[in-house]
Amino acid sequence: MEAACTNNMSETQDTIFGKIIRREIPADIVYEDDLALAFKDINPQAPVHILVIPKEPIPKLADAGDQHQALMGHLLLTVKRVAEQVGLTNGYRVAINNGAYGGQTVCHLHLHILGGRQMKWPPG
Ligand code: AMP
After folding, report:
1. 16-115 architecture in CATH?
2. Contact present, 69 and 107 (Cβ < 8 Å)
3. Does any ligand 1 atom lie closer than 6 A to the CB of residue 106?
4. Most CB atoms closer than 10 Å: which of 7, 90, 96, 118?
């Protein structure tokens, strides 16, 4: 497990997701454009579990700034596009874990798409 994400943008470190973006390690990529990448989670928590990430290495949601407004919208629309692409017609959950208490383990902002089964609330 990687270290908990710091609060300082300048302390951004390379992560496993950076390696996936640069094709240094393999991933099951389902979508890519200039700004975003989507790939299957290696440890799926639902029949469909896909991660959508920005190519820019923003460590976590709390590190996003006003300059990322368009990118944040793009990521959400990418979630919608990918969910349609993989046939999640009955709904799905989108989750962002932010920082240590949010349960974030990889310090590169990512949106989880979870689907293919009934989701429960509240999450653990
Ligand atoms: P989080 O706990 O929100 O930081 O989520 C990180 C997610 O990344 C977890 O669901 C992991 O299973 C997933 N993950 C870690 N390494 C890889 C990898 N090499 N390829 C795909 N997913 C990964």
Report:
1. 2-Layer Sandwich (3.30)
2. no
3. yes
4. 96
